[in-house]
Model the fold of this input.
Amino acid sequence: MIIRKLVYFTAKAIQNIRQFLLINLITVGIISLSLIVLSSFLMISLTLQKYLDTWKRQVPVAVYIKDGLPPDETTAVRQKIMNFHEVEEVSFISPEEAIRSLQEIFPGQAHVFGSLKENPLPASFEIRLKVGYQSPERLRTLAGNLERIPGVDEVEYAKDWIEGYESFFNFVNTVAWTIGTIIVFATIFIVSNTIRLTVYARREEIEIMKLVGASNLFIRIPFLFEGIVQGLLGAVLALIALYGSFRLCAGWLVHQSFLPLQYVQISFLPLNYGLFILIGGMATGLLGSFFALGRYLRVS
Amino acid sequence: MIQMFHVYKIYPPNYRAVADANLKIDKGEFVFVIGPSGAGKTTLLKLIFGAEPPTKGQIIVDGINTVRAKTSTIPLLRRRVGFVFQDFKLLNHRSVYDNVALALEVLGLKKKLIRKRVLQVLKQVGLLNRINAIPPALSGGEQQRVAIARAIVNDPILLLADEPTGNLDADITKEIMKLFKVINSWGTTVVIATHNKNLLSYHPTKLIVLKKGSVQGVFVSSHKNSGSFVPQNVQ
Done:
């Protein structure tokens, strides 16, 4: 019985789509365009997130130890640092190594380094953190804990940069989601009104179906099927267009010097996001149909 | 079969389409509702069909109080009541077969069963040869027969017809009225609204006279097919 009804409703939806092909294509186009814009925002947001993650992973935390700390206490400090579960790798930087690397960074300033009577740089431990422990809050807590280790003089990390990037990313993310939500609602509204045109064209049919005893659900289901099919087609088209644009533009974008994307591998939307777009498209079509039909079903 | 108790239908601002209608129609009757245009005939039929709720009063059709019934009950009632309209109300882009089959599709019947029943009914109304035609390609009489076929395909207990011959010439009117008589002979209660007094020659068992929304009188046939009527008191 259920299968028979499903076959009937699907056939009815296909019949309706074929009968009002142009208006159905317009609806599919609108859904597709909206999803392209929405997906673009998603991709921008994901790329930014990836960029931030990559950058944060490279950010070292420097733990400066007090001048003249005996070697056994220095080893104890290292051991205590290693005990933090956030820490992935610890390397010791002696004052000599520190000044050498500084000379490498500023080769033109040899006379400055040569004029120094003694090495002013302290010994330090450079820490690399595990992935997922780079949020500003976690870093702040970790730095506080590290500073409490006896023998530690000071802890430094790119605090301002990380917090600045984080708040910039959060801002972009919020803007993307806000615009995305507005687009989704606008799409449902437009799709609903477009579908309403096909409903209007079929108002006589709806009236006759009601006269022969069709329930509201019986009339509604083929329209909802139609909406789902439109949404699915729109989403598939959007993903194809997006993938095409991605293949064309991604390589070019990476090599643009004005964009800091050299260290980030721009990738297409992950599978779960693709599924989200497909389901989102179907839901948009479904809701559009649902709202379009309401008024006509109230007429007896 | 049908009972109406003090039924009013008032359209805004204050137009009384039906006023204090009290009626009783029994199973198997062949009833005419007659009156001039604007007498409330169509509204009366729509009230019976559940297409319009009354402003006041109670209506019982086949044991269902349409005023108190849930919204979901009305479609179930309509599956047992056929309705034939003056303007046919056919789907112009669908074939004769599809138009008739629609009434069975809403019941969720098997395709095979639908086909068997639709062909049977189209044979009864003499349209088996026009099965694939679309309504605009049919004559007025043929279109009305399609509408009748659709109304009777699910074997209704009650058939309502609103000016079914209003757009048809005399010969076709005769043909359609004969068809209604045949349907009535199967046991289906038939209620026809018309302004055409000439149709009285088809011998209704009951005559309801409407004027300006009020029931002026209910008359029953004194002898079968005699053409003479006596008043009936339904109060």
